[in-house]
Design brief:
Layout lengths: L5 H18 L3 H19 L7 H14 L1
Length: about 70
């Protein structure tokens, strides 16, 4: 797995928004990108292996209590 540092994220974020502005000028392309991003977000949210922040910290607290 490739690691990405903070400067890479800043650069990618800026490039993403710049490209999104270009895509937004074409309604058909913008709609396709919108639907695709919507599907990606839905997959992330609906991921059954994903743990909520509350559950994560509860798991840590339980682990500390067992020591």
């Amino acid at each position: 797995m490739v690691t990405t540092d903070a400067t890479d994220y800043v650069r990618m974020n800026a490039e993403f928004y710049r490209n999104l502005g270009i895509v937004a000028e074409d309604e058909a392309m913008f709609e396709m990108v919108y639907k695709y991003v919507h599907r990606l977000v839905k997959q992330l949210i609906d991921d059954p292996t994903r743990m909520s922040e509350e559950d994560y910290f509860a798991m840590l607290d339980k682990s500390k209590a067992q020591k």
